[in-house]
Design brief:
By secondary structure, the chain is mainly alpha-helical. The chain is built from four helices and no strands. The protein has a domain of 60 residues. 60% of the residues lie in helices and 0% in strands. α2 crosses α3. This is DUF2273 domain-containing protein.
Amino acid sequence: MADEKTPRAKIETEERPRPASERPEGAPAPADDGSYTVGEAVRDGSARFLAWVRRTFPGHEHAFWGGVLGFVVAILFLVLGLFKALVIVVLVVAGVAVGQALDGDSRIVDLLRRIFSRN
């Protein structure tokens, strides 16, 4: 009996398109047939998640994201070790600094200049 495959249950739901009043702010409207493309579904999901964060932590959204970032860094330290995780963090900060410089906003570079200046 262990050789026999048991059928898996399938749950089919019939989704109706939500009216604009029920969709999160900035969420796209579905196509005429009620289906979403992958990009629209991702945008809808991320808009719903961001709306949940705003509702759940009003005025403390940045603290929430700081906690998430701290959790990810802690996992990096535990999985990769201290030095490999520090290399990743340094390279990410360098990438952000290059991106900011290309955008015309050099906050990280300005901060490093202030830290390492002779004043």
